[in-house]
Amino acid sequence: MTMRKHAHHFKDGDHEFSASKMGVWLFLCTEIVMFGVLFVAYFLYHNQYPETFAEGAKFLDWRLGALNTVVLLFSSFTMALGIHFCQKNDSKKAVLNLALTLILGAVFMIVKYYEYSHKFHLGLYPGKFFSYEAAESVNLAMYFSFYFLMTGLHGLHILIGMGVITWVLIRARRGEFNSKYYTPVEGVGLFWHVIDLIWIYLFPLLYLVG
Amino acid sequence: MDLHHITPIKTYIKVLALLLFLTFITVIVAKPVSGFDLGHLNTFVAFAIATVKAVAVGLIFMGLKHENKVSRNYFISAILVLLVLFSFLAFDIATREVLVNPL
C-alpha cells in the first residue's frame, strides 16, 4: 500500500480532507434546495386541488413505500459502516458494507420498477402522456407529473449514487483507502445519506399524507 | 470539531433502531393504514416524525455532530432558505382568496 500524497495546493492531508468535504456539503445544500422547491410546488397545488391529490394518492401502495424506506435506512447504515471500516483500516469489511449498500440500492430500484410499471400499465403517465380513462378529476395528470418528477428525480439520484458507490468499492478493493485517506468514501457517503434524507420526507408526503 | 471522528458501530445500530421504530410509528398513525384521522394534524405528525428521523440521519450518519463550523453552517443556511420558502408558501395559502376551481 503506497501512501497517497495530498494535492500540492493543500497544506496537508487533513486540509485536503476538510476542503473536499466542505465542497460536498455545499453541493448537498443545492440538492436540498432543489427538492425543497418541488415540495413547495406540491403543497401549493395540493392546497388548490385537494381532491385531485387525494385521488392520485389512492394509486400508491404504502406497503411498497414503507418497504423502500426500510431498505434505504439499512443502506444508510451499511454506508456509514463502510466509512467506519475504512477509518479502521479494514478494507475487507469496508468492501463488504459498500457492496451491501449497492445491493440495497438495487432492491430500492427494483421495488420502484414494480411501482412504475403498475402505473404505466394503467396509463397513469405524467402530463400529456396520461391515458387513464377512469379518472374522476380532470387534472389527475398533474398529480402524476408531480409523482414522477419527485420520485423520478430521487430514483435518478439513487442510480447515480449506486454508480459512485461502485467507483469507491473498486478503489476500496484495490486497498486505496485507509485511516489517513478515505475522502471519496466519505463524500459518496454524505451524498447517499442525503438521498435517504429526501426519501424520509418523500415517503410520508406521497404515501401516507396523500 | 473532530476531523476524523470515528463513530462506534453501537451508535450506528442505535440510530438505525430509532429510525426503524419511527418509520413503524409514522406508518401506523397514517390515515390510509389505520384510518387514524385528525385532519391537518395528520400531516403535521407525519412531518414532525420525518424531521426527527432527518435530524438523526444528519447528526450521526452524516456526522454533522462532529463537523466543522463552516460545513455545518452551510447546511443550516440551506435549511433556512427552505424555511423562508415554506413560510412564504404558508402566507400564500393562508391569505389566498377562495377561488372557484377553474376546471
Task: Please tell me about this protein's structure.
The complex is a heterodimer of chains A (210) and B (103). Chain A is mainly alpha-helical. Chain A has a single domain (18-209), classed as Four Helix Bundle (Hemerythrin (Met), subunit A), CATH 1.20.120.80. Chain A has helices at 13-48, 50-57, 62-87, 91-122, 140-173, 183-209. The longest helix of chain A is centred in the first third of the chain and has 36 residues, at 13-48. Chain A is elongated and about 65 Å long. The mean pLDDT of chain A is 94. Chain B is mostly helical and 103 residues long. Chain B is 71% helix and 0% strand. Chain B contains four helices and no strands. In chain B, helix 1 runs antiparallel to helix 3 (40-61). Chain B is flat and about 60 Å long. The N and C termini of chain B lie far apart (56 Å). The mean pLDDT of chain B is 90. At the A-B interface, helix 1, helix 3 and helix 6 of A face helix 1, helix 2, helix 3 and helix 4 of B.
What features would you highlight for this structure?
heterodimer; A: about 210 residues; mainly alpha; Four Helix Bundle (Hemerythrin (Met), subunit A); 6 helices; about 80% helix; B: about 100 residues; 4 helices; flat
Q: Would you tell me the overall average pLDDT of chain B?
A: 90
Q: What Rg of chain A do the Cα atoms give?
A: 20 Å
Roughly what percent helix of chain A?
Answer: over 70%
Number of domains of chain A: 1
Q: Please give the count of helices of chain B.
A: 4
Question: What is this structure, in a nutshell?
Answer:
The complex is a heterodimer of chains A (210) and B (103). Chain A is mostly helical and 210 residues long. Chain A contains six helices and no strands.
Any chance you could write out the topology, listing elements then pairs?
The complex is a heterodimer of chains A (210) and B (103).
Chain A: H1 13-48, H2 50-57, H3 62-87, H4 91-122, H5 140-173, H6 183-209
Helix pairs in contact in A: 1-2, 1-6, 2-5, 3-4, 3-6, 4-5, 5-6
Chain B: H1 9-28, H2 31-34, H3 40-61, H4 69-95
